[in-house]
Structure formats: C-alpha cells, structure tokens
## 1
Amino acid sequence: MGLRERRREHTVQLIVAAAAEVFGRRGYHASSMEEVAKATGCATATLYGYFPSKEALFTKVVMDLMGAYLAGVTAALAGASTFEASVHGLFEHFERFAEEQAAVIRVVHTAMRTAQLGPTTSTDEILGLIATYRAAIGPVFDRAVAEGLLAADRNHEPLYTLLLGTLHSASDAWLDVGADLRLGLHAARTLFLAGFPAVAAVLPGESS
Amino acid sequence: MGLRERRREHTVQLIVAAAAEVFGRRGYHASSMEEVAKATGCATATLYGYFPSKEALFTKVVMDLMGAYLAGVTAALAGASTFEASVHGLFEHFERFAEEQAAVIRVVHTAMRTAQLGPTTSTDEILGLIATYRAAIGPVFDRAVAEGLLAADRNHEPLYTLLLGTLHSASDAWLDVGADLRLGLHAARTLFLAGFPAVAAVLPGESS
Amino acid sequence: MGLRERRREHTVQLIVAAAAEVFGRRGYHASSMEEVAKATGCATATLYGYFPSKEALFTKVVMDLMGAYLAGVTAALAGASTFEASVHGLFEHFERFAEEQAAVIRVVHTAMRTAQLGPTTSTDEILGLIATYRAAIGPVFDRAVAEGLLAADRNHEPLYTLLLGTLHSASDAWLDVGADLRLGLHAARTLFLAGFPAVAAVLPGESS
Amino acid sequence: MGLRERRREHTVQLIVAAAAEVFGRRGYHASSMEEVAKATGCATATLYGYFPSKEALFTKVVMDLMGAYLAGVTAALAGASTFEASVHGLFEHFERFAEEQAAVIRVVHTAMRTAQLGPTTSTDEILGLIATYRAAIGPVFDRAVAEGLLAADRNHEPLYTLLLGTLHSASDAWLDVGADLRLGLHAARTLFLAGFPAVAAVLPGESS
DNA sequence: GATGAATGAGCCTTCATTCAT
DNA sequence: TATGAATGAAGGCTCATTCAT
C-alpha cells in the first residue's frame, strides 16, 4: 500500500472512530453528518470524500466494529478446548472489549437490535451480520456436543439466543442504568452454565 | 368524567394506538407526525389538539403501553404463590401480551433499550419506567427469599437484569430474526429456573 | 369545485406565474426554489405543499404555458380558411401572446430548445410537447394541400421546421438582442409565404 | 512561442475540446468541472491551472469554437462572388461543420440562444459574439445590395435574423428531434432564396 | 505542472409546529 | 374541534474553488 493510500486509510479510521462515538451516543437518525464532522474535526463536505452517504458511513462503522469484535470472539473460542472454557472465553472477551470501547457496544447493539431504526437499505447487511455473529459463537455449542452435553440433532437456535441474551443483558444494564458490568457478566455466565443442561434437555428435535 | 371528557379520552386512545403501531414499526426518529396522523385517520394538526409535541405523544405511548403491560405483570404475580409459579406466570403473561400486541413490545423495547434513540428530554421518564418495571417483578424475588432460595442481604440487581434479559432475548429473536416465540420463552424460563440457584449463590452482599 | 379547491387552484396559479418569470429569466438550473418562493411571496417550504419537487413545478410551468399558447394557436387556425390566412393568424397570435407574456416565450423556448438543459426526467414530456406543437400547426399545411399549393405525398417535416423556425427567429432576436418584434415577425411571415412554393417544390416524397 | 508555451497551449486545446463535448451535451449549469476533468483525463484541480474559473472555461470554449466556425464562414463568403453563391456557401459550410462537430453547434446554440443559461457575467461577451456572427455574414447582404436585390438604405436587421433563423432551424430540428439535416438545410436555403426579394421589398428604411 | 484532499456556500427537501378558518 | 395551509429550522448532499505536496 502506497503512502497516499495509507494516509487515506488513516483518515477513514479517524472518521469511523468519530462516527462510532456519535452514532453510539445518539443513534442513527438523531446523528447528523455535521455532528460527525465536528467530532472528526473536519468540514461536513469532507466526509463525502470518504463515504458516499450517511448510510454508507453508518454501515461501515457497524461492519468495522462488529468485524473487530467478532475476530476477537473467534480468537477467544479458538483458544478454548472445552465447553465451559469457551463460555468463559467469550464472556472475558466481551468484558475486555466493552470496557475498552463502550461506544462500540452501543452502536452494535443499536444496529443489531433495530434494523428498522437504522437506514432501510442496509437492513440486509445487518441481518447478515447477525447471522455472522451467531456463526462466530457456533464453536461453543460444537464443544458442548463433543462433550456429550448437547445432542446434535436438536434445534440449537434457542441456545444462541440465550447465550447472547444473557451476555448482552449485562452490558445493557451497564449502559442503561449503570449496573456493575463485571458482576453482571459473572452472574450471566453463571446462569448460562448452570442452566445449560436443563435447557439442552428440553430442546425439540431439529426443525427450523 | 363528563361526556365531553370521555369523548376526548377516547380520541386520545385512538391516537395512542395508532402511534404505538407507527413508533413500533419505524422507531421514534423515523416516524413522522404525518404518518401517525394518517394511521389515526386525522389531520396532522389534530394531533396537536391532544398532545403538545411529538415527544409528549411518544412518552404517552410508552407510558400507557408499559402501564398496561405492568398491570398484567402485577396481576400475574399476585396470583402466584411460589417462586417457580411466579416465573411461570411472568413468562406466560409476556407470551400472551407479545402475541396480542407485537407492536407494543417493539415500542417498549425500543424505548427501554435506547434512551438515546427516543427523544433526549424524556430520558428521565424512561429511566423511571425501567425502575417501575423492576419494581413490578420484585415479588418474584420476594418469593425466592421467602422460600429460602435467595438470601435477602445480597445484591439482587443482577437477578433483575437476568430475568428480564432472558425474557426479552426470546422476544428479540422473535421480532428480529423470526425465531419461534413459544420455544424461545420456554428455553429462557428453563434456563432461568435451572440456573437460578447457582446465580443466587454467587451474588455478593448488598451494596448499591 | 369547492371554495377550498378554488383557493388552492388560485395559489397554484400564483406560484406557476412566479415560477414562469423566474425560470424564464434564469433557466432551470440557475433558478432556485428560494428564488421562486421569493417571487411568489411565500416561504420555500410552502411551494412543496403544492408541488412535490422543483422538477414537477418546472414541468407544470412549461405544460401550462404551452397549453395556453397552443390553445390560442388552435383557435387562430380554426378561424382561418385559407393557407395564407392561417399563416397570418398564427403570426398574429404569436405576436399578441409574446407581447403579453414575454416570460412565457422564454420558458417555452428554453424548454423546447433544450431538453437537456431542463431536468432529465421530464425530457419525454417535453418531446411530447414538441410533437403537440407540430400537430397544432398541422392545419396550416392541410390548407396548403387543399389549395393545391402542396402535394400531400411529400415529406412535410421541413415545412414544420421552417414555419416555426422563422416564427421563433423573430422572437429570439427580440429577446436576445432587442430587435423589433413586430418588424421581425412581419419579415418572417413574408419570407415564409413568398418562399413557400419553392420549398414545396423541392420536398422529396414521403418517407420518414 | 517557446516550447513550454506550445505545450501549454496544446493542453488548453485538449481541455477546450473535452469541455465543448460536455457543455454541448449537458449545458452549462448541469455540467460540473469534475465531469469536464474526467472527459479531459485529468484531475479537477488541473483545470484551474489553465482557466481561472468554470465561467472562463465556458467562455473560452464558446469563443474558440465560434471563432473557428466564423473563420470558415468568412472564408466561404470570400470565395463566393454572387448573392446566391454566398448563401450556398454559407449553408454548405454550415453543413460540413455541423456534421463534423455536432457538439460545437450544440454549445454555440446554447450559448447564443440563452445568455441566461450560461453564466450571468459573460453575457456581454456572448452578445459581442452574436454581433461578430452577424458581421461575418454581412458580405452576403453586401452582394445582394451590389446586385440590386436589396436597397442599401433599409434596415437589414431582419435579414440577418432570418438568414440565421432558417439556417439554425434546420440544425435544431436535427439535434432535437433527429430530422434529416441535409434535407432541412436544403429546404431552408430554398426558402430563404425564394423569399428574399419579397422580404427585401417590405423592409422599412434604416432606423436603429 | 499535477493532483488528492479540504471546504464554504448553497440547494433541494423534510418536518414539527403554528394559525386562521 | 378539526384541518388546510404556512413556515423556520434543519439535514443530506453537491460543487466550484483553494492549497499543500
């Protein structure tokens, strides 16, 4: 990559970082390009030299942050050989990531939670992202199956929902009402691990 | 209440119902007063005869729906004498409510999850609402304490978070990716009940 | 038509008149909605209560003015029984119309001359308008045929072009360099009538 | 002219050629400097190394093309000794020129026709250009006078208008509705020559 | 000389809100 | 009370132009 391109890429990163902060704090619709520009330290028009539209910028922000987060998830799970270790790894990664970049969590939550609150067009991409997220945590359940804790021929769907649900509930409480993040995550992990066998037992056979 | 006032109140309800549908479908910022008016079947200006602003309308919508929902929660919990029955009652109430009024859940989620996605000013009211929600499900844990499943002098905060987190994760998955609601709620309840003792055991002493 | 509609229609006419003046003076691209609003005596946003876009307003202006002009053309030709009288009628109508509403001629010329200078989308409508214009002056040549001045089985295309060309050249000179309109039209009419037989004689057989 | 200057002049020509194509196709206002740059094969900023503004570039384009065209006109008229030959020469030159460079005709028409469609400020230059154009075809009428077809002490103004009007009407029809150029020009020339005596007879005495 | 990047000004359009009827 | 109409205040986006490299 030439020098020019590097500089450009750097600027893109600065914009994305500023935009992440703004979008995370105000949501998509309430954020204005002028606000993002001010946060970046440039003129509004400058943003359009890097992104063709507000929506494209938003999508880039979500994709980038989510990509970084998911890469960490994958790495964390790669280093865990048992089901329990996987869950621990996932929660630890989340905690680290959340503390470093609260804004990130905010945008990602915002985006994932509310396809309908973001711009219409990128809905598909966001849904794809949700799918990617679920795929990334798949190894957790592969290990559960390998360890005999979970039958392979069951509908695992609710497990994904619950793992992410308990995980995110802690960060939501942290962001929304200022609850203790570490404690929340600890409790969430405990609940998930302790309740897992019972849930596994009630899952119906694979279907849709 | 005079006849005049009754008629007015009726109109208010019609508007709120229409607004709930619109806000639930599009979110606060993406919804326009014109859209709400069209859904109500009146002119935009008419809305201002009943609500001083878009924000006030939104707040009213959230408050009303949440109030109805919470009344149901309270009723459901009043009729349950044990911890387990309480949890069952809560989930059943939720399921019934969600199926009847998907839009309601959408707005409430939207509102609760993201103070920042709604209008800035009403944040306080929404936070108050969250507190009310938590208070409404308090009886669940009172029963757990009464049954000796939970020590009274512990920080119950994470329990509230987790109960609501598991509950809502199911409806989120239902709304966002079309997951099976009944199955999701069943799994969530199972997880919560089975994992509860373990979580209760790791809760730290009362603090904040 | 109710009173409401009448008032509305009246406002539409006021806007169209103001817009005709502005578009006629500055052309489509150089005119701004703010300028039109100022000429109308209202706020910019008000225009959007009557027209969905700048382009729609422009199209309406052109269509309306052209429609009025063509109605006059048709009427003038209906009252003329000979070829020569037709041509006289056409020129007289044009002169009257031009003096009354110079702006009209400007917009129409602008629009007709340069589909590509107006908004892209309405190009088709403008081409259709050109076709309508040509159709409106058709009777002139029907009479020429009836009087034996013109063979029916010839390509009349160049005649249309020349009749309008001589006619418009006079108004163009009037608008652009301040030439005398009456004199110009007189000369144009004289040229057309005197040269017509010669042109009719050189027209090729009907083809495309 | 040094080598350096020659190279510069060459670049100027490349830009003017590209700009002529763009302005001819889209008109002044709808053309962007970026579009011109792309057509030239250089960066937008580069254009400013050769022209101080968009307007200056437009003016240069018009002046250059018109200059080339008028030089041809002058040459054609110089080689024609009679009135009729002059008119023939003019039309032939026009036909050759138009077929070679349709874009040229487009820009020139655009510019001449509509001072208001080009940039406001250069109106004077364009008016001067119109005057130059008229001067260039002056010899046609000088010959008419010499041949006794036209009285010298009359207002020749309408003749200029009509000669150019008939000429241009053919190319307009060609450009706008795809009419046959050669046929149109033939008809136009025929009309002009055949009708000329009659017009000459009705011209008033010299005045403005 | 050439260009990528930056930007101020401006344009079209939307929308919450007000007001006269 | 209901509403059509009017509007100020943005907001997203474009573009001619400048400047540092």
Note: Residues 32-34, 44-45, 48, 53-54 of chain D lie near DNA strand F (CB under 10 Å from a C1').
## 2
Amino acid sequence: MESHLLNAIHSSLHINQLRQVHALVTTKYQSLNFHFIRRLLNLSFTGYARRLFDQMPRQNQRLHNVFIAAYSRLCLNTEAIDMFVMMHRKNSLIGSFTIPPVVKSCSALLVIELGKQIHSLAIHYGFGSNLFVQTAFMDFYAKSGDLDSARIVFDGISVKDPISYNCLISAYSKTGDVSAARRLFDGMTERTVVSWNSMISCYAHNGDHHEAILMFERMQVEKYCPNEFTLVILLSICAKLGDLEMGLKVKKFIDDTNAFPNMIVATALMEMFVKCGAVDEARQEFDRMNKRDIVTWGAMIAGYAQNGRPSDALELFECMKHEQIRPNDVTIASVLTACAQLGSAEAGERIGSYIESEGFNSNVYVASALLSMYSRCGNIKKAQQVFDKMLEKDIVSWNSMITGLAFNGYAIDAINLFEQMKETEVKPNDITFVALLTACTHVGLIDLGLEFFDRMLSVHDIVPKVEHYACIVDLFCRCGKLNEAFDFILEMKVEPNVVIWGTLLSACRIHSNVELAEIAVKKLQVLEPENSGNYVLLSNLYANSGRWQDALRVRSLMRDEKVQKTAAYSWIELEDGVHKFLVSDSSHSKSDEICIIVEGLSMQSVSDESDIYVEFCL
DNA sequence: TTAGGGTTAG
C-alpha cells in the first residue's frame, strides 16, 4: 500500500488528486509526508505545502532543503532566505545542499552582506571545498559585481569542472573584461558547448563581432555541434550588424537541422530580418510559428514600428488583443512609436486613454514614448502633463520633452528645461544637443546655438556628430548667412553629408545664391547622383536669374545621366485613410467632384472678396 | 554556466 501511495503522490498532477492522497498520508502513513510535500512544491503549491510543514511537530534538514530550493526556483527569494534564517536559529543542521539555493536568492535580491555571512558560515561548517557550494558563491560574487572575490573562490577550487569555468567566463564578459574571459577559455582542458557559447556571446556583447564569428567557425572545426543558444547568439550578431547574408546562412542551418525551431530561436530569426530591414520576411517567420508568446508579438509590432510601417504595427496590435493576449510595457511602447509616426491625434488620444486606464504609464519607456507621441501629434500640453507626472526621469524622458518643446515652437521653454535638467543627476547626451540646436534654429538664436555647440565638447565631453554640424549650418542658413554657413562647412571635423549640402542648397534657392548653389550641387552629384531634386533646384535657380542656357544645360544633363524627376505628391489623412494627389492626377474616385469644387473656389476668389465656406467630403 | 521584443534625435 505504501509504495502504491508513493506512486500516486508522484503521478498526481491535480490538486484534488493530492487532497485525496493527503487524507491517507496524515492518518496512516506519516513517513510519506516528505514525498507528499515535495510533490506539492514541484507543482508550485507552496502555500498548501507550507501549512503542512508548519503543522508538523519536527522538521528535518531534508524538508527545509526542499522548501529553500523550491522558493528559490520560484523566485520567492525572501521566503527562501527566511526559511534559511529560521533553520539557523533553530540550530537545525545545515547541509551542503542547503547553501546553493539560498545563496542564489541572496544574489537575486542583492543582499550582499547576508550572502557574505552565509559564506563564512558555509566555511565554518566545512563546505568550503564543496564544488557546488563554491560555484554558488562564485556566481554570487560575480552577480554582486565583486569579480575579485569571485576569482578567489574560483582559484580555490581544486578540481574545476567546465561549469566553474563557464560561470567565471560569463562574469568577465558582463564586466567587459574580454581578455580575462579568453585566458580562462584557453586554459580549459575540457570544454562544453556552453563554454563555446559563453565565449562567442562574450565577444558579441562586447562589440567584437568578427572574433565571435571566428570562434563559431573554430567551434565547428573542433567538432562541437552548435545548439539553439549558439544560433540565437549568432542571429543577434547578424541583427546588430544588419548582415542579412550571414543571417540567411544561419536560417539555412536551422532549416536543415531543426524542423521546428523553438520560440526563442524563431523570435531571434524574426529580429534578424527586422533589423536587416526585411520586415515582410520577418512576418513570414511570425506567421509560420505554431505558438507565440508576448515577446514574439512584441518583436513583430516593434519591427513594423521601427521600419516606418505604423499602420501594420497598429493592425497587428489589434490582432493580438483579439487573440486575448494582454499587452505589456514593451508592446505598448512600440505601439506608441507607431502612433507618433502616424501623427494622428485621434489614434493617439485613443491609445493614450487606454494606457492611462490600464496603468501602463508608470514605466519609463512607456511614459517617454507617450509624451513623445503627444508632442508629435501636436498636443504639447498633454506631453507636458505626462512629463510632470513622471516619478523617474531618465535621459530619454528629458530629451523627449526638450525635443517636443523645440518642435512645437516653444524654443525658449526647451532651453529653460535644459537648464532644469542640469540641476539633476541626468547627464545630457548627443541627442539633447540636437534638440537644443533645433530649438535655437527655430527662433534664430545664432550666438546661443554656437555657444551650445562649443560647450558640447569643452564642458560636456560630447564629440559633435554630423547632425550637430547640420543644425549649425541650418542656423546660419535660416538667418541668410550663407557665406558663414559655407565657411563653417569647410572647417567641419567630419565629412559633410547630403543633409549638410542639401541644407545649403535649399538656402541658396531662397536667397538666390547661384555661386554657392553650384558648389553644393557638385558635392551632391557625387553623394547622391540619383536624386533629381538637387538638379531641379539648380535649374530653377538659373532660370530665376535669367541664365536660361545654364538651366537648359542642367536639364539635358539630367537626361544624359538618366535622372528621373520623382513625382511630388500632396496628401491628406482622413478617418478612412490617406488620400494622395499628383499633378494632373484623375485617379481619385471623387476626382470630378473635387475638380468642380476647386474650380468654384478659384472662381469665387477672383470675383468675390467675402469669406467662402465650402464643405466637401472626400 | 550560454539565448529572444521596447522609449528620444536625424
């Protein structure tokens, strides 16, 4: 009967089955109590198990151990530590199996002092040279950022297994000490796939993608078979590099070896396509998955948002809600980016109230995206409200608000907000200065703009990038100081790009400066020979100055170089979608009606000075 | 002991 009952305990999956067994255990077979409680803990019924534990007259070491291990595994770290402390106070015998899980909970909660005390205790009990205990403390010190102590523990291990090595390799990897990690790896006599993965991941996380790929190749030469972890690490490298060619090779490897990649591999594959700009291929992977979790959904929605396809992002978000999957902070942040791109105040309002009602706005990512969305949809008041309510403000929150003010015409407020930011712990970055210089540009504050530009490096230690130079060029150009802009370009410490020359060229058109326009166009012809806009601008400029021959020459140059003039569309977004119009375009379904009304409008504007109110629906 | 999605600027 006893063995029959033990089988019943081990095979029970449902709480009701266990309750039936319980009645027998408590009355007749108390020796099975341990197995019963362990089964309950394995099935995560911690409360039920704990009530039984508390009712028992005597609890032995094994029983304490299974509780501490279960609590730690289920991330109930405080409970794990409390149980250990209770055990110690009751003078219960502590064993080597008691230590690793409680140390893990100390790492998770970052209770450093307690962890160190437990370490002394473990040595006192004579577990100082137990491999499992040593590995646990090594991991604890590594996670606490105390690599020196982790190393001392490692050096004290007499017979090191691959796990001890791997653990320290990944610790060095996290602190960026790649060479220390590599020395350990090279010193290993016996490696596992995990050792290779840890080393590849170490190079990848520290930016040395080339070396990561070399290690992957060497791993295969040495006959180690890559596993799913290896593939995910490689795919994330391809994603970071935007290397579609290599990404496709990894995909082929997966297709050849793994008929059904797991969810993490499939998500990494999607992410690789997304970051390489191949959104439709990413969607194919998404559609192919037979099971999707919130990370999958989130990756695809973000993929659309990051690749300028906001409508697809929102459509997929609706799909996700339809499948009863509750969005989290990550999905919401991407959806907000999509709304901001649409610039649609109505969609923005809708998602804004949803977020507030569901309580998502306490997350920094969500709050920054929300305020940014409001400001891009033109609702600066709402943006300011979100910003003011934020309890935690990071650099992105400040940048979003400064940018929002700058773009909505509140340049002085943007600059004042920067002054407020300087009073905080948050340090400005390159994006902060793009926003500040934009603000100066909008109100023509040349001197202040130049001062900000100088202070970037001298005070804030930020090297100006080409976009900062572009802001200054724009600042000069908008004030009509074209020669100063040109001199500034010549002295730039980075190579001027199309934005720089394009800004100068546009200013030349406005201020009819043919001489500088010719220089700018020459530069642009090299940088973007296919862009017809530059040729058109120059040709028009010649025509306006009466230089017809030159104007014709540019036009014929365009023909010779086969540069096509791209059509300029006007467009308007209404409730039912986007309506595009081209010159002489009659493709719109209500084209005739529109033409009649436009004609009427122009007739009236000639004959009648009074205000005209015309209602027309597209 | 090794693995996947997010916010700002251009």
Note: Confidence is low (pLDDT under 50) at residues 608-618 of chain A.
